[in-house]
Amino acid sequence: MRRRENHVLSLAIATQSHKLTALRSWFAWLVRHRYLPLNPASELQLPREEKRLPRHALSVAELERVLDLPDPHKPLGLRDRTLMEVFYSTGLRRWELARLELTDIDRERGTILVGCGKGKKDRVVPVGQRAFR
Predict the structure, then answer these.
(1) d(CA 130, CA 133)
(2) What is the pTM of this model?
């Protein structure tokens, strides 16, 4: 920590993590080369930054402008528009969408089967009708 006048300034989480990682590596090197019998930093918990959601989501008008960017009259535009609609409608991860097969889509029920998603679990996800158009 740095001091300025009578105030203590704390280090950012990323800075703390960076410095502690270097320290942990140095102690591991000391143990590996037999300068120390045990690594005092082996169970050191590194600080993690909080993962926060964005403050503002797109408005309906902004979303419509984004979805209108691809030209649905061209093959690539139709593909891109469909991908964006499915992303918005389902909240799938990129790699989940990339691994989808035609057999995973159930138009009658309006669902998609996501096989081996996060945590290697299968799940069925509802899809908005607009994504099927």
Answers:
(1) 5
(2) 0.56
